[in-house]
């Protein structure tokens, strides 16, 4: 990544992450948290927040100790192309799998609520074509688009939160730990799976004009936690812990019950704006980062179009494989999210060890060079 020209300020970088990771936390994660912990799911999020702060500090440490080109560029320089590529494979699999799950979940939601009569093939073609154009436009265009999309998405989030306040019964959040500590600990797994995705900051570091600061990481983590905690607690307060668990999209159901007076209702099309904004940026960004692993020499943030076409054809092929909705959601709950939690924990700790080893060897090499010069 030595040829990269820095084009993003940290604020743009974090807006990208809030839109992309926020979709995971706001849409995909909440129903799985409710399934795992029920009424105590909101408490699980509070439980893992201090743990996530510690790991966000470790991520900041990795970014601080890495060169401007980023940790993965450093790994390629120190470990060689073959061995570093082997270490890149888990991250590449995560990016590709996340893109597939995001598109599959979006397609199921669109087919169920908005495009029931539309062919699945047509929905796939449209979604993947738009994501392809987003990736091909480059990371700067995505950052600029996020600057326009995110404020509206957040305003709509506050709008639904305050408009539905008369439906909320805070007493439904209690009593806590009615079924013991097991649901709480189970929910913590899913909470960490969403919050630890801030590891993607390390992938975006090479594109940042300025050094990333810990207080920026702290604010980012706080916002991502709020994106889980807000609609999660609202779903329990509005529908009760039993009905909330039965909803596939609790955040969307909050839009469906929205009404203002006698004549204003059915405003759930605003949810479509939120979902599409997050999904298109998430898939476009993750596919961009995935293609970046295969690009050794980049022009200013432009990927090889042929490479992007090949990766999207692979994604399209995965999307065309017929998967039953029940088995898809079961796989996300039983395998993908727990695996993400383990993956990020291991990846963060492994990255810290690599940074410490590389810096120690660098200092040792510098001292030896200084001794040889003086002698």
UniProtKB/TrEMBL annotation:
Q: Which UniProt keywords apply?
A: Germination, Membrane, Transmembrane, Transmembrane helix, Transport
Chief site of localization: membrane
Which regions span the lipid bilayer?
12-30, 42-63, 83-103, 109-136, 148-167, 187-205, 217-237, 272-295, 307-329, 335-358
State one Pfam family annotation: Spore_permease
The keyword Ligase is assigned to this record:
no
Q: Name one GO cellular component term.
A: membrane
GO terms in the biological process aspect are: spore germination
Location in the cell: Membrane
Respond yes or no to whether keyword Membrane is given for this record: yes
Q: How does it sit in the membrane?
A: Multi-pass membrane protein
Task: Give the record's family classification.
Answer: Belongs to the amino acid-polyamine-organocation (APC) superfamily. Spore germination protein (SGP) (TC 2.A.3.9) family.
> Under which name does UniProt file this protein?
Endospore germination permease
Upper lineage is:
Bacteria, Bacillati, Bacillota, Bacilli, Bacillales
